[in-house]
Amino acid sequence: MTTSVHSTGGFRHELYPYLGDDEFLSGALGFIEEAQEAREGVLISVPCDRETLLRAELPDAKSVTFLDAAAPGRNPGRLLAVWHDEIARHAAEGRPVRGIGESAWRQAQTPSEAAELRYHEWLLNLAFAQSAAWSLLCPYDTADDDREALQALARCHPFVRRNGTASPSEDFDRDAPYVFEELASPCGPCDELAYSRGELTAVRDKITTCATAAGLPEIRLGELLLAATEVASNSIRHGGGHGTLRTWTQDAAFLCEFRDAGHIDNPLAGRTRPTHDQYGGRGLWLVHQLCDLVEIRSAPGTGTTVRLHTRLATA
């Protein structure tokens, strides 16, 4: 899935590296003050501890709206729709707006989760390339001093804010394709099943057997089966009529991987909310709503791999 950014339209996307509570507040409050001076509304979606800090400093700020950062869950594939909905609502009301969005980096428990959060940051540039003009500040805590991770994020943001001033990111290249991390190999044995037309029942039976043995709760199994049926159906419909399923457990999650010969040419597939009159395109959206993490790798000539992660813990 080769993805590049050729235009960011009226969207201004800024990375804000900070260290500690004081730097977080300094940068965020300065950004909010700029918005208020320009008579712009402010949308804020940050982790709970950061929200508490900001609320203490903004007790009467009527122009500020806090979004429930936990509502979409930990799957980054659900986050674009939250911003789309809010930006569209403000645009319909004729209100210019800015946003502050800090991804749940500290909650990312696996390299796969962190990688999908970075990809989400990149996709924001595509998703809002033709949107109404607005700015998004993305704070990032540098406490762990991971310079490689910070540079990877800088490649996803056209601007980097330091000391109250945003400058073009030297690492961002709007014409360069996104470089995906390699999908991690299974850490243990996995079960495999080749499937083709008329064999969706076999796919569901295989997943049921393996997921039950792994201890996946029944309610999560039902959700996973819905998602898996969508992905396997896409393999049959668009991936040459057949595919391969692999299942295994890893990092306290049950994984289902689907491989086929198809190609998904839209990097935003499944990440934007389908309209009521839209024909098709709902399958991957449903998959993102049902799974805790979805990894997609797709390119012409090499086919498509879709990994579905479902956490084993009932919480």
Description:
The chain has 2 domains: 11-168, P-loop containing nucleotide triphosphate hydrolases (Rossmann fold, 3-Layer(aba) Sandwich); 191-311, 2-Layer Sandwich (Heat Shock Protein 90). It has helices spanning 20-37, 48-57, 79-92, 111-127, 147-154, 200-214, 218-238, 283-290, and strands at residues 11-18, 41-45, 64-66, 97-101, 134-141, 159-162, 165-168, 191-196, 242-250, 253-260, 293-299, 303-311. 35% of the residues lie in helices and 24% in strands. The two termini are 33 Å apart. The longest helix is centred in the C-terminal third of the chain and has 21 residues, at 218-238. It has 8 helices and 12 strands. With 315 residues, it is α/β, with parallel strands linked by helices. The strands form 2 sheets. It has a 7-stranded mixed beta sheet, sandwiched between helices. It has a 5-stranded antiparallel beta sheet with strand order 8-9-10-12-11, with helices on both faces.
Using brief descriptors, characterize the structure shown:
alpha/beta; Rossmann fold; Heat Shock Protein 90; 2 domains; five-stranded antiparallel sheet; 35% helix
DSSP E strands, number: 12
Helix and strand run: EHEHEHEHEHEEEHHEEHEE
CATH homologous superfamily descriptor of the largest domain: P-loop containing nucleotide triphosphate hydrolases
Low-confidence runs of at least 5 consecutive residues? 4-8
Structurally, the number of domains stands at 2
State the name of the first-level CATH class of the largest domain. Answer: Alpha Beta
Strand content: 15-25%
Order of strands side by side in the largest beta sheet?
3-2-4-5-1-6-7
What is the first-to-last residue Cα distance? 33 Å
Largest sheet, if any? 7 strands, mixed
Instruction: From the 3D structure, determine the CATH topology of the largest domain.
Output: Rossmann fold
Fraction of residues in H or I helices: 25-40%
Q: Tell me, rounded to a whole number, the average pLDDT.
A: 90
- What's the alpha carbon Rg, rounded to whole Å? 20 Å
Which structural class best describes the helix and strand composition? alpha/beta
